From TrEMBL:
Entries under Pfam families matching the protein: TetR_C_43, TetR_N
Residue ranges: DNA binding: 42-61
Keyword DNA-binding in record: yes
The keyword DNA repair is annotated on this UniProt entry: no
Protein name: TetR family transcriptional regulator
Originating organism: Streptomyces broussonetiae
């Protein structure tokens, strides 16, 4: 009978803390610059804002698409976290929905649309996971308000997320930074229109995330 024992499994090395921080700094800098200048800002400029070398950017993200995808996932994940905060609240369900909508605008979710170009892989597993998590959580936030009789029944997740994206995007020809001060005012006008009972019938059907992805 063999007395040999199996060798213990080798541990997968964990990324160094400084490497994790550098990656986070790159994503943060990219998110800020994509919002300010669009998705085609030079990667060298992103590296400078992040305070890292160009080699560090390419070591973490081999091409622009990989970085853009990470930024899109980051924005959706941060928005999902805002939804989790809303779900953790035990007070007024519609007030929680309101706080989530305003928090979503602060995450600059309006910048996602121009970042997703025709060459962007919208079915990447990371993107799918972030999208599905966000959709599920927003549905829960809206579902609580609906169950409380506070949310009109003819709206869907897509209706809310389109409104957040559109109302937080500055009009063409306007100053992006100065227009920010109007965003939450317009969002509150929109939110007032979501309250039940509805004052009018909406044309068409409630919009879902699936509808948003159709060409």
């Amino acid at each position: 009978m063999s007395t040999a024992t199996a060798s213990p499994p080798r541990k997968v090395p964990r990324p160094r803390a400084d490497a994790v921080r550098n990656r986070e700094r790159i994503v943060t800098a990219a998110r800020e610059m994509f919002v300010e200048h669009g998705p085609h800002v030079p990667l060298d400029d992103i590296a400078r804002r992040a305070g890292v070398g160009n080699a560090t950017v390419y070591r973490n993200f081999p091409d622009r698409e990989a970085l853009v995808r990470e930024v899109v996932c980051s924005v959706m994940d941060r928005t999902a976290e805002a939804a989790e905060v809303a779900l953790a609240e035990t007070g007024d369900a519609f007030a929680a929905l309101e706080r989530f909508v305003h928090a979503s605008a602060d995450e600059r979710i309006s910048a996602l649309c121009p970042m997703i170009s025709s060459a962007f892989d919208q079915n990447h597993p990371d993107l799918e996971a972030s999208r599905e998590r966000l959709e599920r959580l927003v549905e829960e936030v809206m579902g609580r308000a609906a169950a409380a009789g506070q949310l009109r029944p003819d709206v869907g997740v897509g209706d809310v997320m389109i409104a957040v994206a559109q109302l937080s995007r500055p009009p063409a020809g306007s100053d992006c930074l100065h227009s920010d001060r109007f965003v939450h005012r317009l969002l509150q006008l929109f939110l007032d229109g979501l309250r039940a009972p509805a004052r009018s019938a909406l044309p068409g059907e409630a919009v879902t995330f699936k509808e948003l992805r159709k060409p």
